[in-house]
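user: can you give me the structure for this one chain? tokens are fine.
assistant: on it. calling the predictor now.
[tool input]
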Amino acid sequence: MSALPKSPRFLSVANQKGGVGKTTTAINLGTALAAIGEDVLIVDLDPQGNASTGLNIDRKSRERSIYDVLVGEASLPEVIVPTAVPRLSIAPSTLDLLGLDLEIGSEADRAQRLRTAVFGLADAYAAGDDRAGPFSYVLADCPPSLTLLTINALAASHAVVVPLQCEFFALEGLSQLLRTVEQVKHGLNPELAIHGVVLTMFDARNNLSNQVVEDVRETMGDVVYDTVIPRNVRLSEAPSYGKPALLYDLKCPGSQAYLRLASEVIQRERQMRAGVAA
């Protein structure tokens, strides 16, 4: 008899500041984890749906979306769509998410809808629903604002991956997110942690980029991943072709950086689990 599937590890890719490489990180970290053998589900929580578009999910495949799950009109397995990347699936987004606060804002469980859906995946798979996985990782691409969508993601998460652009005011955006994480820990999810800070859009020729890296590492210490994501035109081009960078150009510096980040995430996961076990 095969072992029952474990609940997936849920990581939110979040920053309340826009333009930091959040969706790029969600898509390409998810792809890189899949490339090294993990089964990954991306949950697109941004009403703009850039993660869905970047993975070439057409409008017909979005007839049911994560919105339907959050308002109680569908189960999570019912909206999961496979992508062109083996082992990578997505629960797509639609503009309907813009009205979520109005739709369920008065409901007592409004902040826990996603948590309930995600942690039911293992049970659904065990009951014979192959659409439910089994997934080892769920990555949420959060909107660049503090809405009920972001709160749902953080309430469901084991930890948060924070993309941080190597530009002026980077730490200002980080401090806002850290305050939000602390609020969610106290009110909804006491186990929530910062998984790591990933520095993005790094330009080694730029003195400011180098200074930001130095400042963030000095301020945040070991929580900052060793891997730094470079500013790379291939990372910017790939979404317009409906592909992750790793499919668009595996050898480009951006793709290689995300492969290193995926390995680092897995290693940090082992350390975090060992710490819990201890």
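assistant: here you go. The two ends are 29 Å apart (CA to CA). The beta strands are 9-13, 40-44, 81-82, 88-91, 137-141, 159-165, 193-202, 224-230.
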